[in-house]
Specification:
With 139 residues, the chain is mainly α. It has six helices and no strands. The chain has one domain: Cytochrome Bc1 Complex, Chain D, domain 2 (Orthogonal Bundle), CATH 1.10.760. It starts with 47 loop residues before the first helix and ends with a helix. It binds heme C. Heme C (HEC) binds next to α2 and α5. The site of heme C has 20 residues, from α2 and α5. Keywords: Heme, Iron, Metal-binding.
Length: 139
């Protein structure tokens, strides 16, 4: 028990190519003390592929309540769930993109958070698609 076959922290370790016990953290590792990365800095550039990804994710996660057109008449709402606002309402047309990102992340009123199901990149993709829905219905 007192003499186990294991490396001590700073010992030479032949097991690894660089002979070190303490290996560098994988690329993209964020220190626990660093806080959350700024979502705006991680925003993917606008592209048709992004909007199409957003459409697909929107139709999976959001249409049950918000409806395919984003008018808030989804099937769950038709069965009695509180009616979400129409995305074409001036207040939401004028809201910044970040607002939609934040609602998906944190939820809003009766709507719960989608943070565990919709990763940051897809939140921006869905936001891009919501913009397309809004344009479609307000032009
Ligand atoms: C289970 C039903 C449901 C689902 C699924 C849902 N929402 Fe909602 N959403 C609501 C309801 C209800 C409200 C209104 C909440 C309130 O005002 O209390 C709302 C409000 C919103 C608002 C407007 C917030 C405001 O300022 O009024 C946005 C934007 C939104 N949802 C985006 C999304 C997106 C994007 C998705 C998919 C990732 C989604 N929602 C999925 C029910 C849902």
């Amino acid at each position: 028990m007192t003499d186990q076959q294991k490396y001590a922290e700073w010992e030479r370790a032949r097991l690894f190519r660089n002979d070190r016990v303490v290996q560098a953290p994988p690329a993209g590792t964020v220190a626990r003390t660093a806080g959350s990365p700024d979502p705006l800095a991680q925003r993917p550039p606008m592209s048709l592929a992004l909007v199409e990804r957003g459409k697909q994710r929107f139709q999976i996660f959001c249409t049950p309540c918000h409806g395919r057109a984003g008018d808030g008449n989804g099937i769950v709402v038709q069965r009695g769930f509180p009616h979400p606002p129409d995305y074409a309402a001036p207040r939401l047309v004028n809201a910044p993109d970040r607002y939609f990102y934040d609602v998906i992340t944190s939820g809003h009123g009766a709507m719960y958070s989608y943070a565990d199901r919709v990763p940051p990149r897809d939140r921006w993709a869905i936001t891009a698609y919501i913009r397309a829905l809004q344009r479609n219905r307000t032009l």
